[in-house]
Design brief:
This protein is an alpha+beta fold. The chain is built from twelve helices and 13 strands. Its EC number is 3.4.22.-.
């Protein structure tokens, strides 16, 4: 990847444009800002997101594998960022802000530790890469958004402290019944008081919004996702170059870019460590929405069942126009299996398609208008 060798300092000095002087609202993960009067607040909010980038000199993955993820780990890092945001919302709240140079709260340190590049940490690059083998991805192979969503779903099961229920909605359809079943772990016949506890829900929706380019009919529905208070943003990017999209201003998407190689960090005995490199302290990157690769995964976080009910109500309003996915109460009995729905694309643009069409895209239904 051409951007893989950028250093943090080169990003900080001069390569990122400052925020535009515009009266259009700036939306970041469900919060609205003014670019004219709240630039400091925008930067503080962006800086408070966990920023995971390429790292080097970590323990070899699998004992003998790579010691850096430069050039192949960008989507894995974006997966870490979207899940990191869910954990921040769950344990610290959406309005939490990072204070550089100060001793941090224990909850924050615990969250960050789960992502440190070591084999035993829940959401480390080691765990994601090795769990990806079960999804048909060899270590060092590039992931798409669907693969990383499936891997995060599997890894979250082991994180008993956070009790996240990660649900990946396939076939462009969110099935409420499936989410309810995941909440009670298949044990819905237990006493009502035992099943009434709602697990914080991370809802990931892999989508394909066009064939080789995003269809402009999806511009507004995509932007509406960032306006919802439950928004976790979107993982996607340009062909084989992943970004974590956290908001928009006008027709520009705002994103965190993992394509910076930094040294691996090793926490000390009390798990405290310098955390500046996990927060992006320059104005965020922006790109026009039409440049977005059509293969994405949108994320939402519902701490409570009321949050989920509210999200469903908002989505149903959006669905009155063109939407990117369906929301249904239960899986229609007549629905054909995902295998039958697979569509074979026209490979007349094979060179361009090969850059982002990996094997996982067989699970996508191409959305038609």
């Amino acid at each position: 990847l051409s951007t893989a060798t950028l250093t943090y300092d080169s990003l900080r000095y001069g390569e990122i444009e400052d925020f535009p002087e515009t009266s259009e609202p700036v939306w970041i993960l469900g919060k609205q800002f003014s670019a004219l009067t709240e630039k400091d607040e925008i930067l503080a909010d962006v800086t408070s997101r966990l920023w995971f980038t390429y790292r080097k000199n970590f323990q070899p993955i699998g004992g003998t594998g790579p010691t850096s993820d430069t050039g192949w780990g960008c989507m894995l890092r974006c997966g870490q960022m979207i899940l990191g945001q869910a954990l921040i919302c769950s344990h610290l709240g959406r309005d939490w802000t990072w204070s550089p140079g100060q001793r941090q709260r224990a909850e924050y340190i615990s969250i960050l530790n789960a992502f440190i590049d070591k084999k035993d940490n829940y959401y480390s690059i080691h765990q994601i890469a090795q769990m990806g083998v079960g999804e048909g991805k060899s270590i060092g192979q590039w992931y798409g958004p669907n693969t990383v969503a499936q891997v995060l779903k599997k890894l979250a099961v082991f994180d008993s402290r956070s009790r996240l229920a990660v649900h990946v909605a396939m076939d462009n359809t969110v099935v409420i019944e499936e989410i309810s079943e995941r909440q009670c772990g298949g044990a819905c016949a237990l006493a009502e008081e035992e099943t009434a506890l709602w697990k914080p829900l991370v809802l990931l929706i892999p989508l394909r919004l066009g064939l080789s380019d995003i269809n402009e009919a999806y511009f507004e529905p995509l932007k509406q996702c960032f306006m919802m208070p439950q928004s976790l943003g979107v993982i996607g990017g340009k062909p084989n170059s992943a970004h974590y999209f956290i908001g928009f201003v006008g027709h520009e998407l705002i994103y965190l870019d993992p394509h910076t190689t930094q040294l691996a960090v090793d926490p000390n005995e009390d798990s405290q460590f310098p955390d500046d490199s996990y927060h992006c302290q320059h104005p965020p990157c922006r790109m026009h929405i039409c440049e977005l690769d059509p293969s994405i995964a949108a994320g939402f976080f519902c701490q409570t069942e009321d949050d989920f009910d509210d999200w469903c109500a908002q989505i149903r309003k959006v669905l009155k126009g063109l939407s990117m996915f369906e929301l249904v109460d239960s899986q229609p009995s007549h629905l054909i299996t995902a295998d039958v729905l697979n569509l074979t694309p026209d490979f007349s643009e094979s060179d361009r398609l090969e850059r982002f069409f990996d094997s996982e895209d067989e699970e996508f239904e191409i959305l038609s208008l």
